[in-house]
Amino acid sequence: MAYEAFARKYRPKNFEQVIGQESVVKTLKNAIELDRISHAYIFAGSRGLGKTTVSRILTKALNCEKGITPQPCGNCENCTDIEKGSFPDMYEIDAASNRGIDDIRSLRDNVNYAPIKGRYKVYIIDEAHMLTREAFNALLKTLEEPPPHNIFILATTELHKIPDTIRSRCQTFIFRPPTTSQIKEYLKRILEEENIEYEEKALDLLADASEGGIRDSASLLDQAVTFGRGKVDTKSVEQLLGLIPETFIKDFITHLKEKNIKDMILITEKLESEGYDLNVFWKQINDIIHKELVNLSINEKASFFDQKDLEDLIYVQTIFNKAFNEGRNFSNPKHIYQLAILKLKYIKNLVSLREIYEKGIKISKDPQKTQPEGKEEKKRLDIQTAILKIGKEAGGVVSAILKKASIKDEDQYVTIIVDKNLKDTLEDKIKIIEKYFGKPVKIEGKEIKQEKKSKKRDEAVDKVLELFKGKIITYKEE
Fold first, then answer.
1. What kind of fold does domain 6-174 have according to CATH?
2. How many CB atoms lie within 10 A of CB 399?
């Protein structure tokens, strides 16, 4: 018999086996019992949380041979066909590859026919957000006037891409990641069913590495059993996940507490030279710092740091999180992480908000020049940059008027003085102007006389006048 992967073998077959989606399950079961089944649902959430699984279980509940029930038998022909994916009244459509209007038109033609074998025809549209705008519009007509005994389930990982017109005609269920302890219990149940030896810490590592994905956790467990030659132990799981040996972690955290910048840099160098993944290392460090922060903030004992480290640790966590987000998408993450370490050198230059408030400290570009000052330095408005941005949004005419206007940057507002004939043009765009000037704007219209420009005379004309002792009687403007 062919080997069946854990993710398929232990896929939930009824509502009771679904992990971490209590509110979704409870609402659907109540809807079945109260005969309040909607004609359309949206199942939204990240991958591997059970959207398609729950869709199949709902299909079973509506088409089980023993009747419509929140507890389908799982043994009748309809239930087994649904489990295999061969039930003639269940249509699983991959919107990533069947996303056009012709595919939806075909679906619309199909809904007019009665179910072949069951009570309901169920259309499960996976990755529904991938449908084109035209396809959504075609689907909208069917959702507005659904034929009886047809149910639509739109599964998506990007709910914000589903048009509001579609969402308003569906009941939306948000699938949330289960807790690490729920995932661990799921993995433990699989191993006990399979009679496989395991270590508790190994399951903790696998549950944490799955990052909330039930399907991912089962796949990781499958790999761990194979890698560990039939058992799941901590050492083999660490190797499988590429986790960094504990000695590196402890040494780095110790140097972090003592602010030994050089030693932290050397650890990253050694890890890279020995082939370890620095992104995995940095995530482990971040997780430890976060755990220490939580313990210190609720006055529980931390493993490495003390209460006096709390303020500095918040700063460390901030720059380390930013470094991780940048490093894992960078070709050489070592550069990002070493730069984050070097930033720790300037923790001593941080000034608390209380100190800024009480002493009126001026913030200088050079941290060494931070000094108290009686008055806060006024931030000057960059008028030319503001006019440039206004012109892009409001048009060239407004930009041209502003360039010739008299603009005064006051404390509370900006005053713009223009020719009275141009005042209305600016007032029509007042909101855009205020947006880029960053404060209220007053527009004053005045009658501005146009001064005649003294025309520059050509040098040749001056020489002729000098030679013939002449004078200009009149001239014509160009």
1. Rossmann fold (3.40.50)
2. 16
